[in-house]
Amino acid sequence: MLVKTEKMASICGCLTNIFFVRINAFTCLNSYSKISHRLNVCTSSAVQAKQQELHIDDAEFRVLVIPGHTKLPERKQEARKEFKPVPPPRYKTMKPEQDWTNVWPTAHSFKWSVVPFPVRQGFIENSENDGIVPGKYANAELMKIPNFLHLTPLHIKKHCAALRQFCNPWPEGLETDEDCERHFPVEVVTSDYVSDGASIRDVRARNVTVKLKLTDLNLDYHARDKFLRLVGSKYDPNTDVLTLDVDRCPLKKQNYDYAIYLLTVLYKESLKTEDWESGKTLDDMEKYFWDINASRNVVIRTMRLLKKRAEEGAEFVPDCVRSLPGGATDDQIVALPEVQEYKEATEEIRNEEENLDSVDRYKNSVKQMLLPKTL
User: Fold this and answer.
1) Can you tell me the distance from the alpha carbon of 290 to that of 340, in angstroms, rounded to the nearest whole number?
2) What confidence tier does 368 reach under pLDDT thresholds 50, 70, 90?
3) What gap in Å lies between CA 246 and CA 65, rounded to an integer?
4) Count of CB atoms within 10 A of residue 81's CB?
5) Do residues 315 and 297 lie in contact, with contact meaning Cβ atoms separated by under 8 Å?
């Protein structure tokens, strides 16, 4: 029994050794297969890289590349990139006497690194900096809005100097606005519009406005009254300006021609006198005229009577009557300043609303015309 037991133990030991030897062999084979696969992959990738270096076209034929035997072109070593330090913002190196037109020559978005003064814009919410207005660094709010850093006085001065060669000298005699209005009484106003759209046309560009002072037409009362009745509300009595707005034609040039035509027709029609207009009586007049009323004849007779008394030696005679020559005509009497003042005061109180000022003016004009200055 002892002998059998020893035999069985030796057999089991042999079997155990054989099992472990097989496991080691299997492990070695597995590792060898992985290594060979890696070598094949590396070799194929190296061969492909060499073929690309030799500029070999696989479409025609493939060349066997043997390392150490096939001559390969030398590789150029790439220069190592050197990272330069980031320079400081430009505004920190700016000089106070620099030319700002070279720094900001044209219109563009805000650049925080160029502006040498502090700027703040915006508002911070829901953070630890709640309520603080951000500075100019990386501030999107400052880039949204337009700026006028390209329109400083020095910019404008340079622009004017560049445009001066294309301009003519200002004509002499037009130094003031009054001179321009006297030599060019008609003012034409037009507008041009630029928009970002599918069409460059704008219906508002056809509008034409013609302005003119009515006193520049040198109209008499009849022509002026007729002219005002024709134009209606287009005349402003406060500024004495006639305004014609024309927009019925499709083109600006057509509206301008039509406006000038309207102005010409209005002027010529106002100068005409129809046959029925000569038959107007005092009752048909639209306002009171002292020259064609009985008050004029009354003043002339009164002044002549006072002149006769002055010649007879009367004491209480107005000074204006004493200055009249003997046998003065009606026009000479009416031309006296005291008579003209009485005429204007009478027309004012008859044509306009009666008030204390107009009554006082009328009273003073009568006293100056009929009483001596000593009283």
Assistant:
1) 10
2) confident
3) 90
4) 6
5) no
The CA angle 273-276-278, to the nearest 5 degrees, is 65
Residue with tokens 């519009």: 193
Residue written as token pair 């500075």? 135
The answer to whether residues 92 and 118 touch, using CB atoms and an 8 Å cutoff, is no
80-102: per-residue pLDDT in tens? 777 788 888 989 989 888 899 99
Other beta carbons less than 10 A from residue 271's beta carbon: 13
Which residues contact residue 352 at a Cβ distance below 8 angstroms, ignoring those fewer than 6 apart?
358
Phi and psi of 245, rounded to 5°? Answer: -105, 120
Confidence class for position 38, pLDDT limits 50, 70, 90: low
- Quickly state the pLDDT bin for 126 (edges 50, 70, 90): confident
Q: Which residues pair with 247 in a beta bridge?
A: none
Dump strand ranges (E) for the chain: 187-190, 208-213, 235-236, 241-246
Give the Cα-Cα-Cα angle 221, 225, 226 (nearest 5 degrees).
Answer: 120
Which residues, including other chains, have CB under 8 Å from residue 267's CB and lie 6 or more apart? 217, 227
What tokens appear for 368 in the block? 């100056």
Beta bridge mates, 187: 211
Q: What is the overall mean pLDDT for the chain?
A: 81
Q: Is the pLDDT of residue 263 over 90?
A: yes
Phi, psi dihedral angles at 241 (to 5 degrees)? -115, 130
Output DSSP code: residue 139.
-
- The residue type of 208 is V
Q: How open is the CA angle 252-254-257, to the nearest 5 degrees?
A: 110
Residue 75 pLDDT grade (very low, low, confident, very high; cuts 50, 70, 90): low
Dihedral sign computed on CA atoms, order 34, 40, 41, 43: positive
Percent of the chain with pLDDT over 90: 30
